[in-house]
Amino acid sequence: MTADPTADTPGTAADETPAAEGTRAVVAQFLAARIAGDTARLTALFADEVDWLLAENPVVPWIRPRTTAAECAAQAEELAAHTVPEESRASVDAFLVEGTDAVLTGHVAGTVRATGKTFEGPFALRLTVENGRITRHHLYENSLSVAEACTP
Q1: Which are the contacts of 74, defined by CB distance < 8 A and separation ≥ 6?
Q2: Confidence (pLDDT) at 8
Q3: Which positions ≥6 away from 144 have C-beta within 8 Å?
Q4: Could you tell me which of 97, 113, 108, 110 has the C-alpha nearest to residue 152?
Q5: Which of 31, 51, 137, 144 is 20 to 30 A removed from 72 (C-alpha atoms)?
Q6: How many CA atoms lie within 13 A of 5 on its CB side?
Q7: How many CA atoms lie within 13 A of 57 on its CB side?
Q8: Which residues, at least 6 apart from 139, have a Cβ–Cβ distance to it below 8 Å?
């Protein structure tokens, strides 16, 4: 995945309202910070309180409820700690923006460090940006594949 998700990305929406432009810019910063592993920047991008949704999965150590900016930003560190960075891949197929909402779809894959097992599948990420900060982070992914990779 590149740091600029709109560069030649198929399915990029063309909403050019001021709200959409701000949303697109914050999401691009979010993706760049995730790629760089910049937890401080991620913390600054998340609102003080976040509507976080990721299907709870007790066998996956990086999936748990989160609400604060620091908790949400820490998910990237936790994911990195439990997976093999050289074997992690993500691609964005579509980046759609309408006003304060953005939806990214694509594919993710990785290897769980503790088991050596791999996971892969499609994802959809819905983000909402208000006042320059991410207030909603809803991730839909192949949770069965991730759980199986975490199970010894």
Answers
A1: 39, 66
A2: 47
A3: none
A4: 113
A5: 144
A6: 29
A7: 20
A8: 53, 54, 123, 124, 125
